[in-house]
């Protein structure tokens, strides 16, 4: 099995948003250019047992690499377990995926771990795959055809790659694409992996419920909700998810200056974020509905 080199790009957060939702009025005096990366808005997402993407080369680190192995009952499709690898490389995420591709050692094979990825055909990028990590999303694209024997191996690849990348504190979500840029092994043809966000845990903010329109002419029959497990904070800079009565917004904001900008919008159906798209707008002053969610996110981060 050939080893891959990952084109790991630096994570970047672009200043973006004039309006919080369709009813938000921007404050022109607070707007900033969207073409410049703001030093306070680097996304640093907290995860269980996080690992940093870069590290001191003089300090070797142990990481987890997930590989397929038969489950105890031999019934679980796509079952994976972690093995340990050590590295002093700065590009630690690149190293981790290289180890997924390389597969188990001889000793690990004796324990039941199996080879995972079988590349075939020509590469569309000169390597086996590329990875881009941005705004908390790790997007891995295979550049060659990945041959599998069926659904079990498909699920194993998805779980191994996802679990390995999610150990890093800059990764909230993992998207896996085939060499054509479509969602890996998505038989529906809808490319759902490109416009959905998984696993957001919503918490209501009571102050956002309004029975009358008030200054914005809006009625909120239910309080807005904040994604408690997807908040990212670096000093006063913060990124967080909001469910505004079925409308999804990921905000980039500043806790001290009470500024917000939209960096992603979409819908929320039964708690699941769908149909997302990135937006490129400017900062604005939080209004009376947005102030409570910004305060909640800042208080709980």
Largest sheet: 9 strands, antiparallel
How widely separated are the two ends? 42 Å
Number of helices: 4
Instruction: Report the strand count.
Output: 16
Please state the structural category: alpha+beta
Helix content: 10-25%
Unreliable spans: 1-48, 212-217
- Beta-sheet strand percentage? 25-35%
How does the overall form come out from the CA principal axes? elongated
Write the element-wise H/E pattern from the N-terminal end onward.
EEHHEEEEHEEEEEEEEEEH
**Rg from alpha-carbon coordinates:** 21 Å
Mean pLDDT: 78
Give a written overview of the molecule.
- With 301 residues, the chain is an alpha+beta fold.
- Helix content is 14%, strand content 29%.
- Strands 8, 9, 10, 11, 12, 13, 14, 15 and 16 form a nine-stranded antiparallel beta sheet that branches. Strands 4-5-7 form a three-stranded mixed beta sheet, with helices on one face.
- Helix 1 (92-102) runs antiparallel to helix 3.
- It is elongated.
- Residues 1-48 and 212-217 have low confidence and may be disordered.
Topology:
Elements: E1 61-68, E2 80-87, H1 92-102, H2 106-110, E3 118-120, E4 129-134, E5 137-142, E6 145-147, H3 151-165, E7 173-177, E8 196-197, E9 202-204, E10 225-227, E11 232-234, E12 237-244, E13 247-254, E14 259-269, E15 272-278, E16 284-285, H4 290-299
Parallel strand pairs: 5-7
Antiparallel strand pairs: 1-2, 3-6, 4-5, 8-15, 9-10, 10-12, 11-12, 12-13, 13-14, 14-15, 14-16
